[in-house]
Amino acid sequence: MDTLSWLIVAAFYAPLHYLVPLLVTAFRSTDAQRVRQLRRTAIDCTLSMGIGFALVVWLARENLQLAMLILFLSMLLPYVRLLRLRAPARTPDDG
């Protein structure tokens, strides 16, 4: 695949890769922690997308199916940290 094709793939892949983990983080964090948690989630997404794309571009010439599997699995990596985080405790005043 040429460079333009990879840019198109990245343009469609990035919103899927970032949007849901950032939304989960925003809803599960308290007001005091929200900015810090969003920043950490964005860093996780950036690292997993960067490493995933590097592997995919390298593997795509020889084994496209394996490359796409790696791309899919790299999309799941930000959830590893999100699943380890605990949801904030609710108080009776929260409604």
Keywords:
0% strand
Question: What report would you give on this structure?
Answer:
With 95 residues, the chain is an all-alpha fold. Helix content is 76%, strand content 0%. The model has no long low-confidence stretch (mean pLDDT 83).
List the helices and strands and how they pair.
Blueprint: H1 3-28, H2 34-59, H3 64-76, H4 78-84
Helix pairs in contact: 1-2, 2-3
Average pLDDT taken over every residue: 83
Distinct helical segment count:
4
- Oligomer designation: single chain
Taken in chain order, the helices and strands follow as HHHH
Number of DSSP strand runs: 0
- From the spread of the alpha carbons, the general shape counts as elongated
Helix content: over 70%
The radius of gyration computed from the alpha-carbon positions, rounded to a whole number of angstroms, is 16 Å
> Which ranges are low-confidence, i.e. pLDDT below 50, for 5 or more consecutive residues?
none
SS strand fraction: under 5%
Distance between the amino and carboxyl termini: 53 Å
Structural class: mainly alpha
**Main sheet?**
none
